Amino acid sequence: MDDTALTKIASRLRYLILKTTHTVGSGHPTTCFSSVELAAMLFFKYLRLDPAHPERLSNDRVIFSKGHASALLYSLYTVAGVLTEKELSGYRTFKSPLEGHPTFRFPLANAATGSLGQGLSIGAGYAWGLRRKFTVHSSQLSDPITHHPSPITNSTYDATLVPFSIPRVFVLMGDGELAEGSNWEAAAWASHQKLSNLIAIVDVNRFGQSEETMEAGNSESFRAKFEAFGWGAIVVDGHDWGQLDAAYEKAVTYHSGPVAIIAKTVKGKGIPVWEDKNGWHNKMLSLEEFEKWLDYFKKESGDVKGVIQKPEMVMSDGLGVMRKNTKINPLPITNYQSPTATKLAFGNALVRLGETIENLLVLDADVSNSVHTDMFAKSYPKRFLPMHIAEQNMTGVALGLSKMGYLPVINTFGAFLTRAHDQLRMMPLSDGTVIVHGSYVGVSLGRDGPSQMGLEDIVLFRSIYGSTVLYPSDPYQTEKLVEEALKLHGVVYVRTTREPTPVIYDEKTKFHIGGSYVFEPRTTNHEPITIIAAGITLHEALKAQQELAKKKISVRVIDCYSIKPIDEKTLQKAANDSKAIIVVEDHYPEGGLGDAVRSVVGKIHHLAVTKLPRSGSAAELLHEQGIDAEGIVRCIMRP
Amino acid sequence: MDDTALTKIASRLRYLILKTTHTVGSGHPTTCFSSVELAAMLFFKYLRLDPAHPERLSNDRVIFSKGHASALLYSLYTVAGVLTEKELSGYRTFKSPLEGHPTFRFPLANAATGSLGQGLSIGAGYAWGLRRKFTVHSSQLSDPITHHPSPITNSTYDATLVPFSIPRVFVLMGDGELAEGSNWEAAAWASHQKLSNLIAIVDVNRFGQSEETMEAGNSESFRAKFEAFGWGAIVVDGHDWGQLDAAYEKAVTYHSGPVAIIAKTVKGKGIPVWEDKNGWHNKMLSLEEFEKWLDYFKKESGDVKGVIQKPEMVMSDGLGVMRKNTKINPLPITNYQSPTATKLAFGNALVRLGETIENLLVLDADVSNSVHTDMFAKSYPKRFLPMHIAEQNMTGVALGLSKMGYLPVINTFGAFLTRAHDQLRMMPLSDGTVIVHGSYVGVSLGRDGPSQMGLEDIVLFRSIYGSTVLYPSDPYQTEKLVEEALKLHGVVYVRTTREPTPVIYDEKTKFHIGGSYVFEPRTTNHEPITIIAAGITLHEALKAQQELAKKKISVRVIDCYSIKPIDEKTLQKAANDSKAIIVVEDHYPEGGLGDAVRSVVGKIHHLAVTKLPRSGSAAELLHEQGIDAEGIVRCIMRP
Q1: Tens of pLDDT along A103-134?
Q2: Residue B378 contacts by C-beta under 8 Å, 6 or more apart in sequence?
């Protein structure tokens, strides 16, 4: 594709972006316009992707970390013939998959973005997964991850030394979002892992939403940062075809690690009233200006089409299939006799299940010797990823790995998972599946003090859309629940304790997601008191039960190990036949086990956001969730 | 203080650290040992602090971002005579203020740390606050923030050019924690603000808790990173007195911006079995080794004392007093007639109240043109801090400012506050007061899509210890609640909406923290249905009330604008005399308004962590919170 053709494509993209955003009256056209040449050169010269088969291993991946440039993303696929202009015109309207910021509803987005600074970690996860899968699939060929000494400045680098290339992951980023520290977590890890198939494209358009960035458009400042973090860096004029061509060529043939193309651009490039000006971030042109420029870009582009090149070869490993069909045929469970910390049983379970679940990967934020993931590391060193003290990146990488068909288990203290709350809440919007292990929870952590105590982790995970929350109290239960957890979809949280606790179950006891275990009263009484607990407080409840039995007080104890979904039936039954209900938990009172129990035993009707939201008008969305006046009336009028 | 004396002090510190950690059987002696010389040189030669008056403006501040080196922190103050050896021996025991990781219970810690990567932001907040206060107090002197061109390499820099120095903030950091992206948010902002009174001391001891760091102890890698982020950087041998002396001398006289002393150290330095080895992070010596080395360090140190030098001058502005005594004597409220977004009323309130509350600072994460903090920026440019797209740093800086007696209001979308969840949960442990404004919440946000919608923010803030959660529905109510919010202590969350909503109150309507507003039924009925709502759904509830009145269905609507504390009395009364209760909210079902309502109207006893936790044994802590067997028995036996 030559420059003339690309120039036409650029005009066509500007035409489509302008039209779609102006029509719906929102979107971020100026931030799309600055990236037009960067994206056009990528999509129509360097990208190797078969959009009809996005799941194929052989495809490159593109992630728009600057998710507000969604109109550009969808316009690129319109120019490529993947979307029709009619489909594009649904942009940001209710029920269209083309949302204001991309979600899994548009699968070619590869990740939901829009909360800035998340794309690079997810891209690093994809890149790591691609490299690994490609290496496995191509073992008959020579080592594809050989690191050739190829300084980015060396234009004589001989690409033929590498017999084929691992698919690449391109992440488009804004300069404003580089203020998010999560990017530097990703940058450090990607270079540490020498992910030479990861390419960041930084659109340095000088402005955030409301102000100039701290670097004030200084591309060299970003070069210094990326280089300090071990990346190759190429600074270019982001609107110059020749420079862009050379930059991509260098980037895709650079094999010493990840590389960043840092492009100086003009925000709003192409429409003078917008160019390089603050204050136009999500604002529309006047009708007069709009019509003038729409007309102009139409004339310039002549409705040109573009072609995304397919990969040289087709390679598919049935992504995700391995996971769904995995037969969990686990080895025998350890024989637990003396009090055991559930965190240790969790570590044992990973080793045991890792034997047959080959796509199981364990990621650890430098706590492996505390939460016992070091045992997995020893047994399966190639499936253990040290993520260092960077929980946001760990979570983002896990999402990328999940999208590559792996089953990632991330590990740290429950308290420190708050660091990744934004990444976790975004995960359902990417339709990711990640097992999260939060250990060292509650005040029972002890001497290390409150900074280390997870006291808000249950509710953090309860409030993730489509999540599962499990809280075992005994080593056998832990082993069994981990087994169940690995079969689930979405975000699955397993909470474990540091303190050793008594063994109260055995290998034959059955536990299931949404279940509970009832310890019936030791003394008979028609109306017992019911204590509901989980984890460490279950043991306290059982002690209390014993104590109270001596006083002839009848107490039932329910082990509510599945906090979400919760055992509604058992709890309702208990509520009906109990004199009193007591919930006891090692967690702050808000949103934990107590609130979970109340949500099923109370008599309050609760209307809230229960469907995964999407783009649309406020009225449409309130209506969809049943939280508008009509929904309230319906609730009240229900027979 | 000469090297011989410092060497004795170093041995004394090692003696105290070894003794306290070994006695309690936990703590992190090896990470203390690597920092001993770094800290000794700082405390006994460069620090200017009167420990008897830690609140004084003229004091330097020290923050141990590597909070697990708490035994070193407390030992330093023991050597300085601030703590007795007996007090030190309480380390990590129940009720001692010397917790496993520092909290506000030991005020000289200046910040609670232990969740890594938070200290630099907090330190930047202190440094900004000190510079500003010092400038205000010293207006009769020449400009103290003049930036002299003094490259760090220029040893001929003439310190006499600066007539006096603004107190400095020293932040001790680990190399492992630099993997946390939050540090780079802080680094970028601190250099952008040219905070030359901020000095980071990086202890490059090569190991995290469980593994080698990504940089593998390479100090030059950190130099490159800090320099790329606009800092001065000095690389030294962290155990060489001469090099350390020169480094501190350069650092405290460097006036071009913040500076990092990057010290290559040996983890466990001083005890051969520990030195430069992985696996000893929180592990104790054998008794034999312990006794041998305790004896050795005792002999070497000869029970030496150290002296922390006092500042050249005493300066105090009664930190915090201004805030407590502030008379809020606000200007008249805007006359609201047509539907108004509560986010706009929030912006108006800040401008109105900023006039008389002089310590009010507004921090904004690049959303000022969305959430209307741009009006405050225009009215009071010197009290508006652009924080760019970096919510973690914004929150940490706000904490530092709060500790300097300012009243910071941080602003972004409710969804993006999840980024700062860890900083927010830690804030009560520092006893900080920060007003948090989360806007653009709920599905009513509309076209921008789910990544931008705050749907878990109510519960995030409900679960912060000691927090207040307010959710206004009308512009007058917003103005009044912001006024109330500014009088509170702790983390105060105000949730506002993007959509304009009708004006339903007037200037005379009274609202208070813990209150609600009841719209009684429009038709009489002895047993009405009660709808509880807040914010945007209140308007839907009122519409439903109108609709149902036509059908002669009696409906009471409660505006539950104070979600925490919640109006227990009114809600209980409503529960008692209502046929049914419906809660409707624009938030995920878990932990939001529904759970808050149920927590006061249900009949379930709930035992959970209701006191701010501390260090101690597991049993002591479960007991303190009343969640052990004894607490359960007590609850059941209660008459």
Answers
A1: 999 999 999 999 999 999 999 999 999 999 87
A2: none
Nearest-Cα distance to chain B for A495, in Å, is 16
pLDDT for B567: 98
Integer Cα distance of B185 and B125 in angstroms: 13
Q: What is the pLDDT of residues B32-60, one digit of tens each?
A: 999 999 999 999 999 999 999 998 889 99
β-pairing, B434-439 vs B491-495, is: parallel
State both tokens at A36: 């037009």
Binary contact (A451, B418; C-beta < 8 A)? no
Tell me if residue B391 is catalytic.
Answer: yes
Query: Which residue of B181, B453, B624 is in closest CB contact with A390?
Result: B181
Instruction: Tell me the residue ranges of DSSP E strands in B396-537.
Output: 407-413, 434-439, 468-470, 491-495, 517-519, 529-533
- List the strands of the sheet with B517-519, edge to edge: A605-607, B580-584, B529-533, B555-559, B517-519
Q: Which of A595, A598, A601, A605 to mutate to test the interface with B (most CBs of B within 10 A)?
A: A595
Assign residue B535 a region (left: φ > 0; alpha: ψ between -120 and 50; beta: otherwise). Answer: left
Cβ neighbours around A316 below 10 Å, total: 13
B5 to chain A nearest CA, in Å?
Answer: 33
Helix, strand, coil shares of chain B, percent, nearest 5, are 40, 15, 45
Residues B387/B411, Cβ–Cβ less than 8 Å: no
For the segment A550-566, the average pLDDT, to the nearest whole number, is 94
Q: A445 contacts in B (CB within 8 Å)? A: 618, 621
Of B101, B386, B597, the CB nearest to A211: B386
Distances (CA, A) of A545 to A62, B3, B179, B266: 58, 63, 47, 52
User: Closest Cα to residue B402, out of B67, B104, B69, B73?
Assistant: B104
Q: How far apart are CA B470 and CA B635, in angstroms?
A: 31
Alpha helices in A530-567 (DSSP H): 536-550
Cα–Cα distance between A53 and A41 in angstroms, integer? 22
Asked if B583 lies within 8 A of A604 by C-beta distance, the reply is yes
Task: Verify whether the Cβ–Cβ distance B368 to A455 is below 8 Å.
Answer: no
Cβ pairs A/B, distance under 8 A: 505
Q: Which parts of B117-191 are beta strand (E)? A: 169-174
List the catalytic residue out of A37, A215, A391, A585: A391
Q: Side chain identity at A514, as an amino acid letter?
A: G
Q: Which of A462, A613, A617 sits opposite B590 (nearest CB)?
A: A462
Cβ within 8 Å, pair B632-A531? yes
B421 in Cβ contact with A421 (< 8 Å): yes
Looking at the complex, report in whole angstroms how far the Cα of residue B425 sits from the nearest Cα belonging to chain A: 8
Q: pLDDT by residue (tens digit) across A269-285?
A: 999 999 998 888 778 89
Query: Is A496:A441 a contact under the CB 8 Å cutoff?
Result: yes
How many Å from the N-terminal Cα to the C-terminal Cα in chain B?
65
- CA A273 to the chain's CA centroid: 37
Ranking A396-405, B96-105, B329-338, B564-573 by mean pLDDT, the lowest is B329-338
Q: At what angle do helices B536-550 and A629-637 cross, to 10 degrees?
A: 50
Statement: residue A137 has pLDDT above 80: no
Q: Answer whether B595 sits within 8 Å of A597, measured CB to CB.
A: no
DSSP class of A178: G
Q: What is the CA radius of gyration of chain A?
A: 27
Cβ of A389 and B117 within 8 Å? Answer: yes
What is the ipTM score, two decimals? 0.94
Judging by DSSP bridges, how do beta strands A517-519 and A555-559 pair with one another? antiparallel
Least CB-CB distance to A389: which of B116, B229, B425?
B116
Shortest Cα–Cα distance, A481 to chain B (Å) = 22
